[in-house]
Amino acid sequence: MTDKGASIALLLAALMLGTMAGFFYAFSVCVMPGLDAARPAAAIEAMQEINRAVRNPVFFTSFFVTPAVAAGAALLCWQAGRRRAAYAAGLATLTYLAGAMAPTIVVNVPLNQALAAYGDGGNGLPAADMWRAYSPAWTGWNTARGGFSIIAMAFALFALATPAAHTRETSAHKTRP
């Protein structure tokens, strides 16, 4: 693959990482504060609906394909001889996997499942108590996911800005008349 192909893959990875960062950011600064301002029962019902709505092909593609694109960009950079860019794209991949994907699977999804199980009768727990147990934990981890996605995007942008190293042979050919 050419250097141009690696650059295109890096740009796509940065855009996808930025999309995920924006998704997490919007929840932390708008959606969750808005729900926190609502009556707890209404907030629970709204978040249950949001959690059902987010399970769609567009979100799943964005969430799960993003690290694959970043890893692919790292591989293409490596093949193009852009070692520094390959390492940075690899760091972008690992940062997203560890900082955004892992907390989603380990923390946010189980919290969402607990909220989904909260039935109309409240399962013996008042709505205010349920929301107080859910919202701060979910929002804190979501904010971390957003922050790690931003860091991953920064690694991808750094990789994109990293020029290809020239070999002596390539440099020698360019200096000849």
Describe this structure in words.
By secondary structure, this protein is an all-alpha fold. 85% of the residues lie in helices and 0% in strands. It has helices at 3-37, 40-53, 57-79, 83-117, 127-161, 168-175. α1 (3-37) runs antiparallel to α5, α2 (40-53) crosses α5 (127-161) and α3 packs antiparallel against α4 (83-117). The chain is elongated, with a radius of gyration of 21 Å. Residues 167-173 have low confidence and may be disordered.
Q: Short description, anyone?
A:
The protein is mainly alpha-helical. It has six helices and no strands. α2 packs across α5 and α3 (57-79) packs antiparallel against α4 (83-117).
Jot down its keywords.
177 residues, mainly alpha, 6 helices, 0% strand
Strand share of the residues? under 5%
Helix count, per DSSP?
6
Q: Using DSSP, what is the number of strands?
A: 0
**Terminal CA distance:** 28 Å
Topology:
Elements: H1 3-37, H2 40-53, H3 57-79, H4 83-117, H5 127-161, H6 168-175
Helix pairs in contact: 1-3, 1-5, 2-5, 3-4, 4-5
